[in-house]
Amino acid sequence: MGERILYKLLPILKVILFLFFVIICLIPFGIIAQLNFIPFQQNSIITDLVIESSLTLAIFGALLMMFKILPSVYFSDVFIVREGILTGFAKGTTIGVVLLLFCVAILYASGFVQLNANQISVTMFFGYLLFFIVVAMFEELMFRTFPLFVFAERYPIVITILINGLLFAFVHAGNPGFTWLAMLNITLAGALFSLFTLLKKNISWAIGIHFGWNFAQGILMGYKVSGTNTPAVLSAKPIGQAFISGGSFGVEGSIICTAVFLAMIIFILKNYRIEPIVTKELIEE
Asked: Is 65 contained in some domain?
């Protein structure tokens, strides 16, 4: 019985160790920030890019530390592969943009959002475009690499994507305007990103979907992205009940988003076979 419990808990313990290594790898960046070697401005796109890039580098550092402890695991095992990286990102971006625009089209047609022209400089447009790429890289590397790998190694697919999605949602709990519906939708988003990663065995698809969704939501449509404002081409004004319009959180706060994500997840689970994760370590056990 004890061995069985340990078998089930081991992925969680590994993820906790991974998160500990992430914190360790962030310490040098924190020291640099406290010493104020580089005088960054608050609420600046440059500052935001530096922070997100530092977080991304910390993830790579933590992964390398995990690979030292688990020599049978390497980048390709946790879905970081060079082959198809650009095409995967491009296709994923297309999926993310289409999903977001589909949600907005439903909200617009049903009168739950008003869209108006807005102004955004070329510098800010491309600055935030790059920012959302880095954000997508950081968050997907954080959740859809080692954590997803160790969960999929031991648990059924549905349990794997649910746990991964919940972890993804919890880190957004402090965002402005966060609601129970936002919690549900971000969990579903994390589950969807997990499914694509497991299906394609390449994280570039999830990074692309994540980026495409945020880019279309924030920069193109002018919604808040998980409660956060960005400069935009259009300006979206939610109208009516928040659980339909999305309110102050963005499209992820809408039940329309729930329906779209659920439909996508069910479609993938029903029509595609997700190959199980099998490693040398698991075979030996």
From this structure: no
